[in-house]
Amino acid sequence: MKIIFATGNENKLREIREITADMDIEIVSMKDAGVYTDVEETGKTFEENAYLKASAIARKSGLPTLADDSGLEIDYLGKEPGIYSSRYMGEDTPYPVKNAELLRRMESVPDEKRTARFVCAICYVRPDGSSETVRATMEGIVAHKIAGENGFGYDPIFYLPERGCTSAELSREEKNAISHRGKALRMMRDILMREDYTRKK
Predict the structure, then answer these.
(1) How many percent of the chain have pLDDT more than 70?
(2) Model confidence over 165-182: pLDDT tens digits?
(3) Which listed residue (22, 24, 69, 75) is catalytic?
(4) Sign of the C-alpha dihedral computed for residues 114, 185, 58 and 132 taken in this order
(5) Whether 69 is catalytic
(6) Which domains does the chain have, with CATH numbers?
(7) Which residue among 78, 111, 132, 162 has the highest number of C-beta atoms inside a 10 angstrom radius?
(8) What are phi and psi of 57, to 5 degrees?
């Protein structure tokens, strides 16, 4: 059974395919499914935006659809960039530029006030329109410098004190085990396992 994952981000697709590799489902992109729809993210929460994307693609494709909305919340900055993480400083602004600007804004802030988290909400919409949503987080602090090349987005400035490194310095396996998206995907996997058309090999 095919499930569309409503994203054009190959890193996200890879992560969910790895986590559902032992299930009898095929995760396909919108491009693979021949579905081309731009969904305006007008929601006020990660959950609302995930639902907007998943429901729009499910209606157009007739296939069960997953969509996520994720981002970085920095407490000192009033939880910026938050739901606007991908659009912070403009959608076409490269992440190294975004990361440098956030570090500049946090330059004189002490560690105890640099608390932050990655948030991921994943919504699953069935062809009949019913839906389920999960949410997970990964807690950390804003790093003092950019470090690591294994991640993407804001990973190079998200420091994990218990690991002594940024999210971008983790191996892919380590990141999948503790990340906001990895946690949310495993929660969603439990939901998919209950569906009639899925089964564990």
Answers:
(1) 97
(2) 999 999 988 988 899 988
(3) 69
(4) negative
(5) yes
(6) 2-193 (3.90.950.10)
(7) 132
(8) -70, -35
